[in-house]
Design goal:
This protein is an alpha/beta fold. It has a domain of about 150 residues: Hexapeptide repeat proteins (UDP N-Acetylglucosamine Acyltransferase, domain 1), CATH 2.160.10. Helices cover about 15% and strands about 35% of the residues. The strands form five sheets. It has a ten-stranded mixed beta sheet with strand order 5-8-11-14-17-20-25-26-22-23. Its EC number is 2.3.1.117. This is 2,3,4,5-tetrahydropyridine-2,6-dicarboxylate N-succinyltransferase. Pathway: Amino-acid biosynthesis; L-lysine biosynthesis via DAP pathway; LL-2,6-diaminopimelate from (S)-tetrahydrodipicolinate (succinylase route): step 1/3. Belongs to the transferase hexapeptide repeat family.
Amino acid sequence: LRVAEKIDGQWVTHQWLKKAVLLSFRINDNQVIEGAESRYFDKVPMKFADYDEARFQKEGFRVVPPAAVRQGAFIARNTVLMPSYVNIGAYVDEGTMVDTWATVGSCAQIGKNVHLSGGVGIGGVLEPLQANPTIIEDNCFIGARSEVVEGVIVEEGSVISMGVYIGQSTRIYDRETGEIHYGRVPAGSVVVSGNLPSKDGKYSLYCAVIVKKVDAKTRGKVGINELLRTID
């Protein structure tokens, strides 16, 4: 079961699954939970508490201590979890790297072959119940210390530079077209931090800037660093 999935090209959130997660907090009491590095006192057990070597081998992902994953999260094959945190209801798909100190929030959806760099924050959402989860689609790169929250969708093949912060109210400015997006980074976008001036020119406010678009063919030939360096 998955909190959100793409159906006929559109992301659909299954609210009843989010409700089930919330209800589990109401009906379960805190308990002592054993862990390799420590003990915990929480309502949700850790996902790998009863895993042995055979189970890890079968499921085919790598977990580096002290990575923490709560029960109810899904971790696909060929995923690497550096010391990071994955919350309940999250979905991390095949071939993805969750780097050191990155956080995947509750019910967040992370696609295939995604790189979440060090210190990245992907926002969670359980309340309000109708809110949609944050989604990072396949083949995206999220730069170090960036934050994507509040149900924003980063579409397939996008590259987010280091230190970019995107929520529902963040203006996402396409410098080629002048268009401003909210809540969605279009597929194949290369995004950096920026500012847009106020109408009276007295001040500027933070925004995210789409500096270029790339297709899968270009991504395959050009490294991430090169894409981010050649933005003038």
